[in-house]
Amino acid sequence: MKKKQNLWGKLLIAFLIIFFYAPILYMIIFSFNESRSLTAFSGFSLKWYRHMLESKDMMEALYTTFSIAILATLISTVAGTISAIGLSKSKRILREAVEQMNNLPIMNPDIVTAIGLMLLFITFQVEKGYVTMLLAHVAFCIPYVILSVMPKVRSLDPNLADAAMDLGATPLQALWKVIVPQITPGIVSGALIAFTMSVDDFIISYFVTGQGVKNLSIMVYTMSKRVNPSINAVSTLVVVIITLSLLLINLIPLLLENYSEKGRKRRKLFLRTGALLGVAVIAVLAVRGKERLEEKPFQGQVLRIYCPGEYMGENVIPDFEELTGARVITEYFDSNEQMYIKVANGETYDILVPSDYMIERLIQEKLIQKLDREKITNSDLLVKEALYLPYDPENEYSVPYFWGSVGIVYDTGKVTEEELQEKGYNIFLDPKYKSDIYLYDSERDSFMIALKALGYSMNTKEEEQLKEAYQWLERCVSTMDAEIVTDEIIDNMAQARKALGIVYSGDGAYIMSENEEMGYFEPLEGTNLWCDAMVIPKNADNPDLAHEFMNYLCSYEAAYDNSDFVGYTSPNEEVMEELFSEGGTYEGINAYLPRAGYEMDESFHYDEETKKIISNLWSKIKIVASNAGK
């Protein structure tokens, strides 16, 4: 019987090990994948590690993560240990009250703590950035240290310190040489927990940061919005760093036990050599720093950009900084609405990259300023299809960033183009494709396909037409088992997981470049011809540098890097044609070159009342979809 129990116990342990470590092993393997796919291994390559090391943002995020983790661990360990020792000598009422207060942040949901700290910094007008993130990490780490150290302090003989002082020790010596060694296991445990919590934190860091300061959690979150295998590489690097740290923690005590006089002399020699090398490195950096301080047009100035995550070429920012001598701080938003809230509340940026309908709203509410067109000389290089669109008819406020359409990506082995031409968007109601379709989690574009399928304008304000569109979508999610997804559709359709899906043209271009069996179709009923563009907020600190960046991004070199990396259509005519032509990255891929000039295609117009109606109806659709999934 015992043997059987032992066998089941071993099997359970084996299952738990596989359950916890198999995903990590999977991630490490795919960090060496040749292609961008996160699910299909196509060959061994170190390209994503090279990309990670060359990425300024990733290296800065790595530095921020571990520097804050180390500082927060040291500060919180010292503060938490002293607090625990002090509480052990306090009156019972005070001790119990403080212990309850200490438990509150641990039990509190992270989102509540995050909002509380954010409001605290806003109230006292503390500029958010590295310091506020460090303070927040110290604040939530201290309770864990106190919780770890307190049991060890309680287990001590209360007369231990008095006995040490009776033998001639000072209070500080009694603390350092008698008390601390006895509670070291608790201190180490608290420090490890604090370090882990700091490295792991996302929610609190996300709400208290600013000035472009990002830790790895925030970086990975923004990277995961689009397919980026560097996520695997940077995550693997973190696993390696943590593993090495744990090995050092376990090996250092063993090395200290074998510490000898000879070893002490070697250590002194090593430290002296290291100090000399450090001075030499600092001298070299100082010389190089002087070399770099050559006069440049915007030397030392700062440009703050607010744009969607993973929406910029990897060399765009470094090249611009090298060209101008300016420093660029980039922050990322998840949605146009999130961006609007920050801008409407007075958050200061120099450049925004919103979508067309949001630009229209920003113009209406006078939150952005007119551009000095004479400073954007490269605008002559842009295609006419991306200019003079309804949201900004004279391009007085905006410069195109990317443009494209919304269409149907499909598996050519399951769906024919003849079917798509015949049925258009109504193919999403064809029982033949039940449980084999994706809808995109965008209220605007989902209602667009429903309204177009019904023969209406996607900018209709008629409630009856919106109700019909709701019924169309309700039928789609309830009877067709349509799956509502976001950017995971990109990799899923590249692997042909479903027959049909709604995507933006740039994502369709990537899918087709990864899988030649996939196609992209723009229905004859018309589609959303969208444009994301750069604008300058009314309260921008550096509009001159913002104009310089806009002009730079219209140039061939910057536009090519941007479009080639992200996959969305460049407004630069030469870049667009080169990437689409023979030998280009998106050679012959129709999704990269959206349909232009078709009378049934439209651009979204912003209307507050219609938006509220659509938002409410889309919330109901998602409820229907979740119930249908059950």
Provide structural commentary.
This protein has 630 residues and is an alpha/beta fold. It has helices at 2-30, 47-54, 56-88, 92-107, 110-123, 130-154, 160-166, 171-200, 203-208, 216-223, 230-257, 261-292, 316-324, 336-344, 356-364, 417-423, 443-453, 463-479, 488-494, 505-514, 543-554, 556-566, 573-580, 608-629; strands at residues 302-308, 327-333, 351-352, 399-411, 437-440, 483-485, 500-504, 518-521, 529-534. The chain contains 24 helices and 9 strands. Strands 4, 5, 6, 7, 8 and 9 form a 6-stranded mixed β-sheet that branches. The chain has a 3-stranded parallel β-sheet with strand order 2-1-3. Helix 4 packs across helix 6 (130-154) and helix 19 packs parallel to helix 20 (505-514). The model is unreliable at 269-293 (pLDDT under 50).
Annotation field: number of helices: 24
CATH topology of the largest domain: D-Maltodextrin-Binding Protein, domain 2
Number of strands: 9
N- and C-termini, Cα separation: 41 Å
The CATH class of the largest domain is identified as Alpha Beta
* Low-pLDDT runs: 269-293
What is the arithmetic mean of pLDDT? 87
Major sheet details: 6 strands, mixed
Shape from CA axes? globular
Helix/strand class: alpha/beta
